[in-house]
Amino acid sequence: GTTYTGGPGFLALTDPKEIISQGLLATRDARSLPLDAAVSGTVNIPETGGTFELGGTTAGGDFDIANKRARLTFSVPAFLGISGEAIQIGSDTYVKTSLTGAQYVKSTADQTSVPLDPNEAFNQVESFLDEEGVVSEKLDDVTCGDRTCYRVRLTIPSSLLSDAGTPAGVDAGMFLGDSLVIDLQFDRENLRIRQVATDVDAGDVGSFGIVITFSNYDATVEVSPPPADQVTEEGGLPF
Which residue has the higher pLDDT, 200 or 74? Predict the structure, then answer.
């Protein structure tokens, strides 16, 4: 369902599924996609009585979608102060962390499952839209930076996420409760995604929130493999 608003040359979308589908298509058309992610909250480990504070956990990266190149940096202060970087060039991935030293570890993925591919993440979200039990709801538009965004809430039953391939023996409901609720924002003018957010209350396991923001689409992304003398092949971790 679309209705013309008389605004600056675009149709106002009213169907939440249509907003999500067209938004993901518009985002996939971008030449490059930058993102920043932040995690907050706590995770409890009942077996040990320990608690991890997730505040300060961040990730940021740039994806050259057309050329399948990406660089992602991350930091998890609560987990041994770990930080690191992942670089993807086609099917080759180079990973370096503060726990494994100065060398990058290189691995090569099957061409059909290249890691760090944002398109795959979008496909997984879109694939849930028509699944039984999934609910999409259009909320009031919101301000996103200097733009206005559609806001859509997507609710996915935990049972579907378990069926979709969580690690063996892991019940998604234990971490997510009955469902995963994702808040999506799409730029009204170009429909590209601007923010993905979720808040999870996992009871005794803890509660946490994730906010991923996207900006500066189509910027030039320079991603090159590390120098050969800084690379160790998979299986030769530099401990």
Answer: 74
